[in-house]
Amino acid sequence: MKEHAYLYRCSEASYGSAQQVLSMVYHTLHPRSVVDVGCGLGQWLKVSQDLGISEVLGIDNAPIPPEDIWIASDFYRHHDLTQPFIPERTFDLAICLEVAEHLPEEAAPTLVNTLTDLSPVILFSAAVPFQLGYGHINLQWIPYWIRLFEAKGYRPLDCIREKIWNNPGIQYYYRQNILLFVQRDLLTHHSVIRQLERESPVEVPDLVHPQLWEATLQTLNNKISYLERLVVYTQDENKSIRKAFHHLINGLKRRIKGLFYYQAGLIL
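Structure (tokenized):
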């Protein structure tokens, strides 16, 4: 339930992010139909409708009351995302944003299969290691997802992140993680997709946004401060407890140091 409450708290921020990201994506791709896998409350589909797209479908397994969903219930399908989804039709664009990390790793190929069965063009993002949030159980760097999509014949296009990286109106995790995956056949006969490919680097880099970096360090520092306060109030006779606390604190400090050296080269 904690994770579902998080959906409600983030709903307005997600809607604002969707307005800015989708207005740019739709201006380029001009989709006529959109499906959102892991749609949550449906904010991204509501924005899609606001931008003139009438053919939308949201798919999710969260137990959300119909009256709380931002789109009509006719456009919403309840489905367990860890299980195969048999589509009745395909869509011009599939959206799957910050969803994959909430599913177990063994379900990742199933999710990718669902997306590639639904559309030749996929707007995708997934949380990276150390990214804060609720219910994260499969945090992976981008190459992990690229391998799964490439096995289905899809090519990653990193043509969005640079354009939105410094936009404070978009949540940092979208700015950090969002990519397009396109069916390779489109690269030969779709002029817009070919142009996006030219704008995309050959090798898609792992990036860590400064906002994530700062939030992660702050979280670790808060844990260290809390443990240090506990050590101060621990009685002298509890030497084994004091030793355990010191060991834990030193481990956290080593983690921060390792995180700094590992991720310093990933921050744009």
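Strands lie at 33-37, 55-60, 76-78, 93-97, 121-125, 154-157, 179-183. The chain has two domains: 2-199, 210-266.
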